[in-house]
Amino acid sequence: MIRVLLADDEHLIRGALATLLALEDDLDVVAEASTGPEAVAEARAHRPDIAILDLQMPQQDGIAVAASLCKSVPSCRSLIVTSHGLPGHLKRALEAGVRGFVPKTVSAQDLARIVRTVHAGSRYIDPLLAADAISVGDCPLTSREADLLMLASDGASVNEIAERAALSAGTVRNYLSSATTKLGADNRYGAIHIARERGWI
């Protein structure tokens, strides 16, 4: 039996998926979670073979959970499902050790097949998501620039960002200016829009 952890903050979707996967003779849903930290805790407690993780969850996204599981439960392979599969998300997911990346439009039968593929040691990336990632190219931002754009995305002032990032206001301005230039935007808000559209933040 392939032991599966399901993590999705939408209870109806998670419950439906658990029911559908339970119909497969070789799959056993051993744990469920609705937040990132809960997913990590459940994986540590139940030691699943596969963690099916929603990309967007409260407190910690699926990619961060996958990275954590690579360290704390290395025998568990992660599979991301998402309704917002942007190219930058796929790149981050692969860097975090994710073995599968699929849209939520996939059928339950196909998902079960992909779980088996990932469990067997192979990787599965949705072809359309992979093609989009290739066409967009690599993110030109440094990790620090991306982090500060993310902090700026809720409308925080430079001083607020500086406080959160433990940097000087001048340093924050320099990073935001560099990110804006690299993305060819008129200002940091335009840079945030471009970076989000491409899945880089």
Structural commentary:
The chain is an alpha/beta fold. It folds into two domains: 2-135, Response regulator (Rossmann fold, 3-Layer(aba) Sandwich); 143-197, Winged helix-like DNA-binding domain superfamily/Winged helix DNA-binding domain (Arc Repressor Mutant, subunit A), CATH 1.10.10.10. Helix content is 53%, strand content 15%. The chain is built from ten helices and six strands. It has a six-stranded parallel beta sheet, sandwiched between helices. Helix 7 (143-152) crosses helix 9. The radius of gyration is 18 Å and the shape is elongated. The mean pLDDT is 90.
Q: What is the CATH class name of the largest domain?
A: Alpha Beta
Instruction: Find the CATH superfamily of the largest domain.
Output: Response regulator
Helix/strand structural class:
alpha/beta
Helical residue percent band = 40-55%
* Distinct helical segment count: 10
Shape-level CATH architecture of the largest domain: 3-Layer(aba) Sandwich
What is the terminal separation in angstroms? 37 Å
The helix-strand sequence is EHEHEHEHEHEHHHHH
Report the β-strand fraction as a percent range.
Answer: 5-15%
Helix and strand layout, with pairings?
Blueprint: E1 2-7, H1 11-22, E2 27-33, H2 36-46, E3 50-54, H3 62-72, E4 77-82, H4 87-95, E5 100-103, H5 108-119, E6 124-125, H6 127-136, H7 143-152, H8 158-165, H9 169-182, H10 188-197
Parallel strand pairs: 1-2, 1-3, 3-4, 4-5, 5-6
Helix pairs in contact: 2-3, 3-4, 4-6, 7-9, 7-10, 8-9, 9-10
